[in-house]
Amino acid sequence: MKTDKPAPSDSSLPLEIFGLKSALIHPGDDIFAALKAAFQNAGLLPRDRDILVIAESALGTAENRVVRLSDITPSQKALEFEKLYHIDAREAELVIRESDVIFGGVFGVLLTLKDGMLCPNAGIDNSNAPAGCVVLYPENPSKSARRIADAIYKEYGVQIGVIIADSRTQPLRLGCTGVAIGAAGFLATVDLRGVTDLYGRPLTVTRVAVADNLASAAEAVMGESGESIPFVLIKNAKAVFDPEAVGVLTIPRDECMYWGVLQNEK
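^ that's the sequence the OP posted. Answer follows.
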């Protein structure tokens, strides 16, 4: 792959978002083959500096991250979580295995830390999963994003950004928004510190979560149930493209405003 220097896209063009329908993806399917078929069926082709958003459940399914709950024997801790939070003990056992930290829970959900991100149930998804099964997060979402970006360059000769996206609730808000759990090909977060605002004052703390913003835009098209739109192609996104960029940025817990304030309230 060629290695052009990072460059911003042309923000003068309107943002365009295209949902790409796909046949049902089964465990072990070739995700790139499904993507190529979706492009063909939609009559679309990727071009340089597009952003492709892929639903994590579709990618996780293709990567054989589907687990049958009947194959799981819950531990004593998982059984305790079932009593406390009314979560299936077998699913709780998978949460224990997949998460880095479990902070507690509410009805049906455990709040966890996984790969530096707060998420419910370590990202384990029991929607859009075969009956009696759940889908785990892809093993390494950013590595998968890089692999798919490379495959697109090889197939179509264009360099694009790729986001692996999940849906997530925000603190004290009802409903889901999108969040990037993996990214490649562009800067997932852009640092605006030092840039001046409308009144000429330099910004001191502002960083823009570009990948999360685009994941949310894609989420509005993908939907949350049976839409069968696991891919979204975004054109004219205001992003800084870098063929070498891989990953999303997280911060330590003690630097998080929400975490710090809530901990001090105890």
